[in-house]
Amino acid sequence: MKSLALTFFILPSLLFYPQDDMKKKAFYALINSLISHSVTEVKADEIKKTDVVWLDARAQEEYDISRIAGAQFVGYDDFKIKSIKDIDKDAEIIVYCSIGYRSEKVAEKLERAGYTNVKNLYGGIFDWYNSGQPVVDSLGNTTKKVHGYGRTWGVWLNDAETVY
C-alpha cells in the first residue's frame, strides 16, 4: 500500500517540478509515508531558538560521523528515559535521526514519560543538512560528512560527503 501511495506522490512530482524541487517533494512524500505525525514536528528552517535541547536518535556510528552542534546521543534501539533524567521535563527538546522515523518513536516515549515540549525534526539531519544548516564532527568542527544510513537512503543527501 505504501509503495502504491509513493507512486502517486512521486511520479507526478517527477513530471511537473524543477529537479531540485522535485527531489525535495519526493523526499517529503517518502517521509510522510513512513512517519505517523504523532508528535509535534518542526522543520529545519522554522527553528529560531538556540537554547534547544537536541537529542540524536541515530546509531552511535552515525552520531560519530556528524551531528547537530550540541546534540546529545540517546540512540534508538537502546534508548532509555533514564539517559536524559537530568533534562527538565518542560525544556524544549528536538529529537532527530536521519529522516524523522526513529526520532518520532523516541519523541513519543518522551511524551509518555511526561516531557511537555518535545518536537520531532521533520526530515531529520538529512533535511537539516540539505537546508544549509551546519553539522559538526566529534571535535565540534563543521563538516560536510553525513552518515547516509544506507545506500538507498543516502541518495536523499545533497552535496554531502555521504559516509556508510
Automatic annotation (TrEMBL):
The keyword Lipid metabolism does not apply. Pfam families: Rhodanese. InterPro entries: GlpE_sulfurtransferase (IPR050229), Rhodanese-like_dom (IPR001763), Rhodanese-like_dom_sf (IPR036873). GO terms for molecular function: transferase activity. Residues 48-137 form the Rhodanese domain. It comes from the Bacteria. SUPFAM superfamilies: Rhodanese/Cell cycle control phosphatase. Coiled coil: none annotated. Keywords: Transferase. This is Rhodanese-related sulfurtransferase. The lineage of its organism: Bacteria, Pseudomonadati, Bacteroidota, Cytophagia, Cytophagales.
